Amino acid sequence: MPIAFNEPLSFLQRITEYMEHVYLIHKASNQPQTLERMQSVAAFAVSAVASQWERTGKPFNPLLGETYELIREDLGFRFISEQVSHHPPISAFYSEGLNQDFMFHGSIYPKLKFWGKSVEAEPRGTITLELLKHNEAYTWTNPTCCVHNIILGQLWIEQYGVVEILNHRTGDKCVLHFKPCGLFGKELHRVEGYIQDKNRKKLFIIYGKWTECLWGIDPVSYESFKKHERRSEHPRKAKMDDGPEKANSEMPGDTTDNVPVTQETVQVIPGSKLLWRINSRPPNSAQMYNFTSFTVSLNELESGMEKTLPPTDCRLRPDIRGMENGNMDLASQEKERLEEKQREARKERAKEESEWRTRWFYPGNNPYTGTPDWLYAGDYFERNFSDCPDIY
Question: H/E element holding 225?
Answer without folding.
Answer: helix 219-239
